[in-house]
């Protein structure tokens, strides 16, 4: 295991937590702005946007 691998392994849980926080952040915003908010649908759409962003980042590398 390389030093980079060890560092990323240590950051794994933090990265997961950050992504969860990002989803929660946008779920809150949608909840405030849309009174008839469907939480399941909103979460699916937020996750689709995040996946699209990840795909674009992967394509740039």
Q: Give the topology string: H per helix, E per strand.
A: HH
Total count of strands: 0
Question: How large is the radius of gyration?
Answer: 15 Å
Low-confidence stretches: none
Q: Which band does the percent of strand residues land in?
A: under 5%
Helix residue percentage: over 70%
Give the rounded overall mean pLDDT: 95
Helix/sheet category: mainly alpha
Distance linking N and C termini: 23 Å
* Number of separate helices: 2
Which sheet architecture does the biggest sheet show? Answer: none
Shape: elongated
What do you see in this structure?
The protein is mainly alpha-helical and 61 residues long. It has helices at residues 3-33, 39-60. 0% of the residues are buried. The mean pLDDT is 95.
What's the helix and strand layout?
Layout lengths: L2 H31 L5 H22 L1
Helix pairs in contact: 1-2
Salient structural properties:
2 helices, elongated, single chain, mainly alpha, 61 residues
Structure summarized in a few sentences:
The chain has about 60 residues and is mostly helical. The chain has helices at about 5-35, 40-60.
């Amino acid at each position: 295991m390389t030093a980079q691998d060890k560092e990323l392994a240590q950051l794994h849980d933090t990265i997961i937590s950050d992504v969860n926080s990002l989803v929660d952040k946008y779920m809150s915003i949608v909840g405030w702005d849309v009174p008839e908010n469907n939480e399941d649908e909103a979460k699916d759409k937020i996750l689709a946007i995040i996946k699209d962003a990840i795909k674009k980042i992967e394509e740039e590398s």
